[in-house]
Every structure is written in structure tokens, then in C-alpha cells.
Amino acid sequence: MTKPATSLQPIELDCADETVTLEMTRWLSHLRAERRLSPKTSEAYARDVRQCLTFLAEHWGRRVTLKAFAALEASDIRAFMAMRRADEIGGRSLMRALAGLRSFGRFLEREGKGKVGALSAIRAPKVAKSLPKPIQMAAAKRLTDADERAGEDRDPWIWARDAAVMALLYGSGLRISEALGLKRRDVPLPGEGDVLIVTGKGNKTRMVPVLQNVLQLIQDYTATCPHQLAPAGPIFVGARGGPLSPRIIQLTMERLRGALGLPDSATPHALRHSFATHLLSRGGDLRAIQELLGHASLSTTQIYTGIDSERLLEVYRTAHPRG
User: Fold this and answer.
1) C-alpha distances in angstroms, 168 versus 153, 185, 210?
2) Where are the alpha helices (DSSP H) in 64-155?
3) Are 119 and 52 a contacting pair, CB within 8 Å?
4) Between the CA of residue 234 and those of 5, 164, 222, 245, what are the distances in Å?
5) What is the pTM of this model?
6) What are the phi and psi torsion angles at 257 (to 5°)?
7) pLDDT digits 0-9 by tens, 191-220
8) Considering 26, 161, 175, 278, which one is annotated as catalytic?
9) What are residue 80's phi and psi, to 5 degrees?
């Protein structure tokens, strides 16, 4: 059992008594310190549990206590999920809400505060697996070309910056947050290295290869950038020298979509999809691609690359050793 966190300041909730708010405070501290969940995931879990507690207080007509929460019935949880669905919340958000409630319930059980058995009786909502739409190879390469932006009324160093970011997304399969999270010292000069150490989801690091022409694009950007780029600071900065917002890259992509005649599905994240799909189409190993993308599950990579049964059968026919 976790030691009592008497120094923690309980969060304030009108819908629950102080025993619930104290345990919720300790649970959130546990998520950050021991589970090492990302701040965004912790905030989403906290928001989902708050919404559930607010609903239960109205549903029951009284403030929620630990004893009442532990005695939750499956019908209470279904009513909460139905209320959320009525607000046009998607399946993925409902699935996350249930995951957050289960996490809080498991924490209470470990702390000896009661077992919320009803949570395990609820099935997670089904979520349709939407296949990503990769960008064609020629178009993806044009998106990484700084000359495509030459007609824009912006400084040339910004064209170079955007081209370098796009090249990282497509050339190394990075998430946009991973590319913008790189420090200058993380990126080797052309000819002095060919890998990057990237920090991904859950604060996990992985090694990814980087092409020399991508490193050259980054070097072209840093050579023309008017702001001082400290070794421990972000390598990609905004117009005023601060950290570069992902929204800037998204807006750049929107402008380029019009110029190149690409569909709305051509987003910065689609470049990562394209990286995986194009590797696979050229015979890349699915498990190797999984490592490059930083996916914990191979099934996620299968969705990402749009791999289908015909492709799997083709791999089987060409690679299976026949007796």
C-alpha cells in the first residue's frame, strides 16, 4: 500500500465529500509520480472522473462518498456513459473515460478503500478502426521541399524550418510533438551521425535513423535562423524565437494542400502514416516498422500502415519455408 500522503492538498469538488477528493488527489499524484503518465493523459483521466462524480451526485441526489462510490452498480455507470454519448462524445473518448474510472477504482482497492466491482462488469465501447490515408510518395517529397514555399510572404529561414520539420515527419516517421521536442544537441550535423534519440509517448525514448539529406535540410535551417539556438534548447523555434507550436506546422500544411492539390486528409500526422506505409510497400518488416514508430502494440502498426489480409498472405507465400 502507498504511504498516506497527508501533505497533499485535496482538490475541491462540490459533488463529493473530502474523503473522495483526498483519494482522488493521491491517485493523480500516483499517476504522475509512479505510473509516469503524460500530463495530458492524467488531466484527461481527472476530467473524466470529475464528470462521473458530478453525474453521480445529480443521479443520486447527494454528494458522493467513498462508500457510495465503492457500491456503484453497473446501471449507474451505463447511465453515465449514456449521458456522455448523448453529448455526442465519440467511442474513443468513452473508452478513455472508462479507463480513467477503472484506474481510480484499482487505486482505491489497492489502498483498502473498497472494491468497485461494477467497473469490471462494463464492456468498453466499440471503436471503429479508421485506416489512415497515406500521402503519395511524390507529394510527400514535395512537402519537404523548401522551394514549394518560395512564393509565400515569409522569411526564407521559416521556409527552411518548415521543410526540415516535414522531412523529419516523413523521413523518420516522427510524431509532430517528437520532432518539435528535439533539442539542438540531439541532432547531429550532416556526415557526423545518422540516428536520433527521440522521446515519445509515456516519456519513452527510442532510436530512429535519419537520412543525410534530412540532416542537411535541418542544417540549412539552423544556418539561416536569426535566433540563437542553445544546445539544450529546442532546435525548431517560432518567428520570435520561442518554441515552435504544432499549429504553425498544421497551418503550413493547410497552405501546401491547396498549392499541391492534396485532400484534407494530408496532415502533418499523415506524413508519419506515409513513412510507415511506404516502408511496408517496399518490403519493410512490420516489427521493425513498429520499433521505428514507437508503437507498443504490433496491432497498432497494422492499423497505421493499412496492412490487409492480402498483404499478409503475400508475405506468407513469399517467405514461408516450404517443407
Assistant:
1) 24, 16, 8
2) 66-70, 74-86, 91-110, 137-143
3) no
4) 36, 14, 11, 11
5) 0.53
6) -55, -45
7) 998 888 888 777 778 888 888 989 999 999
8) 175
9) -65, -45
Give the integer Cα–Cα distance in Å for 108 and 271.
42
Active site residue 304: yes
Rg of the chain (C-alpha set): 24
CA distance 170 to 276: 9
Give yes or no: 295 in active site.
yes
Say which residue the cell 523518420 belongs to.
172
Query: In Å, how far are 192, 242, 248, 304 from 196, measured between CA atoms?
Result: 12, 22, 23, 22
Q: Does the annotation count 35 as an active-site position?
A: no
Look up 227 and say whether it is catalytic: no
Cα of first residue to Cα of last residue in the chain, in angstroms, is 55
3-state DSSP assignment of residue 291 = helix
Query: Cβ(179)–Cβ(169) under 8 Å?
Result: yes
Catalytic residue among 102, 154, 269, 311: 269
Three-state DSSP at 64 gives strand
Single-letter code of the amino acid located at 13: L
More confident position, 218 or 141? 218
Question: Is residue 282 annotated as a catalytic residue, yes or no?
Answer: no
Looking at residue 207, its amino acid is: M
Q: Per residue in 58-71, pLDDT tens?
A: 999 999 999 999 99
